[in-house]
Amino acid sequence: MEKNIVHQNVELKSFNSWRVGGKAEQFLICDNIAKLALHIKSKKIKPPITYIGLGSNLLIRDGGVKGTIIVMHGGLNKINRDGKLLYAEAGVSCSKLSRFAAKEGFDESAFFAGIPGTIGGALAMNAGCYGSETWEYVKKVLMIDLNGDQIIRNKSNFKIDYREVNNKDESFLGAWFQFPNGNKEDAKNKIKELLSHRKKTQPLNWPTAGSTFRNPKDNFAAKIIEDCGLKGFQIGGAQVSKKHANFIVNLGNASALDIEKVIDHIQQVVLKKKNITLQTEIKIIGEKFGS
Ligand SMILES: Cc1cc2nc3c(=O)[nH]c(=O)nc-3n(C[C@H](O)[C@H](O)[C@H](O)COP(=O)(O)OP(=O)(O)OC[C@H]3O[C@@H](n4cnc5c(N)ncnc54)[C@H](O)[C@@H]3O)c2cc1C
């Protein structure tokens, strides 16, 4: 896809990890921040603007997305050391940040290795695992607003919660991370260990968006879904993973609607059997198509 020009009617299946969804009315990838800001300032791109990273936490509906999808991955890819901090642009993958930090001898960044998204997505979602979360390590961020203006904000400007951050009408262009000093070899070994644990416990050979539902307080969505007997439940090509009940896998021919129907079914069964309202962790965007 040619960079720095606005494309029309772009198929989004290859821009999300579930491999489903319709088209973006407009679509843009910029290879640097200045060009992106210029596009937004020109007011020529159609609102609303939706920034996405690797689409690994995203259900894009079959009817497509109105306005403009701006993809950060493959565009804003700078990563460098900035004194005691690490700076990464929004399109850098979490695994790249993790490996870069390990080489620099920083500790505690290993958890990023297995999160298959970008820094922008991790900031927007406060992504985390194995007891660590993105914002624990953020010092400051570079934002862009609806007018294309850039603003540096400190962590204290945000209300940060479990898989939730209030970035309102601004989006993430990059972040400065502060990790404690550590040992390069230990950091590399930790990454290996965590990746191997994921392989054993998650259906990584199928298209998924990771955990579909947020964990309710003091509970685990996967356990609740499994206890309701829903492992293997299937509509069309979408199935509740037999390996990890909070993952919905695309067996090859799933539509976004199949996935959404499975999500609805899980919510209904869990409410009926356990009196628990499961909330989605994944973000749903776009227009419904079919019924
Ligand atoms: C196999 C698998 C395992 C996973 N494991 C984990 C895990 O352990 N922990 C975890 O937290 N998540 C996990 N996830 C979910 C997902 O990888 C994370 O939520 C990740 O942070 C999403 O990043 P992304 O770049 O793919 O974001 P996207 O899916 O592209 O976007 C997610 C949301 O962030 C917004 N967004 C993206 N970029 C920006 C930006 N630059 N500015 C403003 N908003 C933006 C989007 O609009 C959307 O609302 C997993 C997913 C998969 C497929």
Characterise the protein shown here.
Helix 2 runs antiparallel to helix 4 (184-201). 42% of the residues are buried. The chain is built from six helices and 18 strands. The two termini are 32 Å apart. The chain has three domains: 7-71, Uridine Diphospho-n-acetylenolpyruvylglucosamine Reductase, domain 2 (2-Layer Sandwich), CATH 3.30.43; 79-200, Uridine Diphospho-n-acetylenolpyruvylglucosamine Reductase, domain 3 (2-Layer Sandwich); 221-285, Uridine Diphospho-n-acetylenolpyruvylglucosamine Reductase, domain 1 (Alpha-Beta Complex). It is an alpha+beta fold and 291 residues long. It is globular, with a radius of gyration of 19 Å. The longest helix is centred in the C-terminal third of the chain and has 19 residues, at 256-274. Helix content is 24%, strand content 25%. Strands 6-7-14-10-11 form a five-stranded antiparallel β-sheet, with helices on one face. A four-stranded mixed β-sheet has the order 1-2-5-3, with no helix packed on it.
The figure for the number of domains is 3
Count of helix runs: 6
CATH class of the largest domain: Alpha Beta
Spatial extent as radius of gyration? 19 Å
Could you tell me which ligands this complex binds, including any ions or cofactors?
A: flavin-adenine dinucleotide
The topology string of helices and strands comes to EEHEEEEEHHEEEEEEEHHEEEHE
Order of adjacent strands in the largest pleated sheet: 6-7-14-10-11
User: What is the first-to-last residue Cα distance?
Assistant: 32 Å
CATH architecture of the largest domain: 2-Layer Sandwich
Mean pLDDT, rounded to whole units? 96
- Indicate the percent of residues in helices: 10-25%
